[in-house]
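yo

u said u wanted the structure for the complex thing, so here. seqs first:
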Amino acid sequence: GQQLNQSPQSMFIQEGEDVSMNCTSSSIFNTWLWYKQDPGEGPVLLIALYKAGELTSNGRLTAQFGTTRKDSFLNISASIPSDVGIYFCAGPISSGSARQLTFGSGTQLTVLP
Amino acid sequence: NAGVTQTPKFQVLKTGQSMTLQCAQDMNHEYMSWYRQDPGMGLRLIHYSVGAGITDQGEVPNGYNVSRSTTEDFPLRLLSAAPSQTSVYFCASSIGGWGEAFFGQGTRLTVV
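structre next:
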């Protein structure tokens, strides 16, 4: 089942506002990935984190790998209309014959003009 | 620059019908996987493959079959469609099962 708890489930914000979302797990992860899904499209990788405490930016996006290795955070500064979409956190788990990516349930972001 | 290509984009099936969702990638990735996306559930892994000839079950494999005869292709088969299989299906490929996965555009399947 789902091992990543993502919050909030949805957000409605005004254009120009900053956004924060997070992902937590009861298990330790060695990698955290943040994806964005535009309406009608497949998810696309935004930021990858590989080290506890790591802080990585991609334009207006900043993500952090929590020091406990059980959480991660994504911040979007000065939101714009094209930030609308679903944001997923993901991390690899060992199951079956190989590691696989497991995903959080997503944060649906709506940016109001 | 095709990446991961899925066909069809949309499909309506009647209960009990069978069909195959196609997935092809041109990045020479060994690892390929199928996910389904349902509202509020995120992406759940159906089946995955770590290379040609090797497949394994994910979190929600029941009702689906896969095979991997080539590195490039990883079709998903629904043998007898059920309304519970109404969903959006995504194929993904990656170098390994631990890093960046590249997704197709998805197949929106409705079973009536």
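Chain B is about 0% helix and 50% strand. Chain B touches chain A through 31 residues (CB under 8 Å).
cya
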